[in-house]
Each structure stands twice: as C-alpha cells, then as structure tokens.
Amino acid sequence: MLNRLEREGTTLQMMLKLYCKDHHHSTRALCAECHGLSDYALTRLSSCKFGESKPTCGKCTVHCYKPVMRQRMIEIMRYSGPRMLFLHPMIAIRHLIDGLKKTN
Known about the structure:
By secondary structure, this protein is an all-alpha fold. It has helices at 4-24, 32-46, 67-87, 89-100. The protein has one domain.
C-alpha cells in the first residue's frame, strides 16, 4: 500500500497525463512543458515539511510553489479533477478522503 506522499505523487502524475493528453495531444509521454511541471511538483512534494501528515495542496497553509507554477497546477487540477472520478475513481476518492482529514 502506498504512503500518503506516494499517493499524492501518483495522483499528480495521473492528473498531468490526462491534462497533457487532452490539451497538448501527447499520446504516451508528457510533453516537455508538462514533464518540467511534473518534475517541479514531485520535487516540491518530496521536500514537503509536513511529510506524511501533509494536507492536500489546495488546503495547505504553506504555498511552496512559485506563483506561476501554482497557477498552472490549479488550472490542471481544475480540469483533471472532475474527470479523475470517471477515469480513476479509486484514486480520486482516496484524494478526496485525504482532503477531509485534519492536519497537525
């Protein structure tokens, strides 16, 4: 079973793939722009100060992303989030449950 940070990373990757496929017509791999954003986001995630007790990024009190990158991720999550319920329902529901948990 994946830990909290691994689940968050998996969810992030799936959202990026969905967005990239639908907007940049990438079939298998992420385009260069989305790949760079993925690397950036996973680096930020791996150095999250909250560790396993981290909230979902939308509910986090610390905004570790640069403003431009944060806006891109918001755009991607707003597009991909609702679609995840149909394409990857278990991952989407788990992400919603993680968002309901209280943080320290």
